[in-house]
Specification:
The chain has two domains: about 5-175 and about 385-400, 3-Layer(aba) Sandwich (Aldehyde Dehydrogenase, Chain A, domain 1); about 180-375, Aldehyde Dehydrogenase, Chain A, domain 2, CATH 3.40.309.10. About 40% of the residues lie in helices and about 20% in strands. It has 15 helices and 18 strands. The longest helix has 27 residues, at about 20-45.
């Protein structure tokens, strides 16, 4: 479907968020194709029952874990990556054997219409349905009983989804977001500084103009390197995206006027405006905002306490980069944490002393397309995981199956109870086979009843 309709995918994504063909393929069409190919190549293995090692205590017995579909699942998608965020979970749900209802975001109407018109041409319309509509339709869908709900979007709506799901005890996967920081250990990566700056710049402004749940939300750097970092970023931003708002290119636009105004309002705070060291201009007609860099905006400002979801990059300075761990831990757990450092001791500290949905060293964003690793949040950034085998698991119930025979049938399992049977239980739960055998053969004593 994606291959046949590739040009229509490109057009829909351009109409919704202004993505170029390259960005649309790199971030949406390509990952969806990869996910299909990966699932098809691995599905036989994913579906196969997995043998479980059963202890001798249960002899004779064998066990296995059998994946089975949840049944009827609801997938609710977001507007920032409206194609991939619909197809990636759909691939996992179908692979696991579920019937699916997809509710695309009404804020990406072109992609929503594309999915509604195209999916029935390729998939069984009795098992896979696309339902379009606004918040009222979403509310009606949430009031129904589902076997699983998969939601991608904001924490605010995620709470609504979870509340409605709780009424039917429906399990949920919530892919939310948060403020994803990057620790920039300037001194330790001096030999790779050019690569690090390029990766930071392209990830922040090249991925849907910062409108991504795993986009870099702010940078932590030592105070003595801040001016150098700002200068390097400004130079590369001008080269990649243009000198000013009039020459802006290679960047997506805000999805709609509401989100455009929300991001612009961050910059209207006088204290935040005073921290602007690059950019700050915007084009209301075309919903474009210039890549903007802030240096030490107030930590109590809105821009430092809400997920930005736009082309603003605050840089926060610290006396020592090691302080970044404490800074991050004082805030809600992010969906992603990035760290550019060659300091192995520091890496170990970050791994062991911070919590995030994912942690990536010396690169940004690419964890999203790594099928071998789970993608998901923790705390306010979400619950559950998917991608690759984890997508199959997200839409499967792992049923435990234990096979047993009729011999031996030990009388110690049954009443009437006595001291011997109590001792049998004590030794058995210790999984002490030697003393259990001695007890059964009468060669091991035990406390008698009073």
């Amino acid at each position: 479907m994606v291959t046949d309709q590739e040009n229509k995918c490109f057009q829909a994504l351009y109409d919704d968020v202004g993505k170029s063909k390259i960005e649309a393929f790199k971030d949406e069409v390509g990952p969806s194709k990869k996910a299909v190919v990966h699932a098809l190549s691995c599905l036989k293995n994913w579906m196969a029952p997995k043998k479980a090692g059963i202890r001798l205590l249960f002899f004779p017995a064998k066990g296995e874990v059998v994946p089975e579909p949840y049944g009827l699942v609801l997938i609710m998608t977001s507007w920032n990556y409206p194609l991939d965020l619909a197809l990636e979970p759909l691939i996992g749900a179908i692979a696991a054997g579920n019937a699916v209802v997809i509710k695309p975001s009404e804020m990406a109407p072109a992609t929503s219409l594309f999915l509604a018109n195209t999916i029935p041409q390729y998939l069984d319309n009795t098992a896979i349905k696309v339902i379009e509509g606004g918040p009222d339709v979403s509310q009606q869908l949430l009031q129904q009983k589902w076997d699983k709900i998969f939601y991608t979007g904001s924490p605010r709506v995620g709470r609504i989804v979870m509340t409605e799901a709780a009424k039917h005890l429906t399990p949920v996967t919530l892919e939310l977001g948060g403020k994803c920081p990057i620790i920039f250990d300037y001194s330790s990566i001096s030999s790779n500084l050019k690569v690090a700056i390029r990766r930071l710049t392209s990830a922040k402004w090249g991925a849907c103009c910062g409108q991504a749940c795993i986009a870099i939300d702010y940078v932590l750097v030592e105070e003595k390197f801040a001016s150098s970092l700002v200068d390097l970023l400004k130079t590369l931003v001008r080269r990649l995206y243009g000198e000013n708002i009039e020459t802006l290119g290679n960047i997506s636009r805000s999805v709609n006027k509401h989100h455009f105004d929300r991001v612009c309002n961050y910059l209207k705070d006088p204290a935040v405006a005073a921290s602007i060291v690059h950019g700050g201009s915007y084009d209301e007609k075309n919903l474009l905002i210039e890549p903007t860099i802030l240096l030490n905006p107030p930590l109590d400002s809105v821009v430092m306490n809400e997920e930005i979801f736009g082309p603003i990059l605050p840089i926060i300075t610290l006396k020592n980069i090691q302080e970044s761990i404490e800074f991050i831990n004082m805030r809600p757990k992010p969906l992603a944490l990035y760290a550019f450092t060659h300091n192995n001791k520091f890496k170990k500290r970050i791994v062991s002393e911070t919590s995030s949905g994912s942690l990536l060293f010396n690169d940004v964003l690419i964890q999203y397309i790594c099928d071998e690793l789970p993608f998901g949040g923790v705390g306010q950034s979400g619950m559950g995981k998917y991608h690759g085998k984890y997508s199959f698991d997200a839409f499967s119930h792992e049923k435990s199956v234990l096979y047993r025979g009729y011999f031996p049938d030990l009388s110690a399992r049954y009443p009437p109870w006595n001291a011997f049977k109590l001792e049998f239980c004590r030794v058995g739960y210790k999984v002490d086979y030697f003393n259990l055998l001695l007890l059964l053969l009468g060669f091991r004593g035990y406390p008698k009843e009073d």
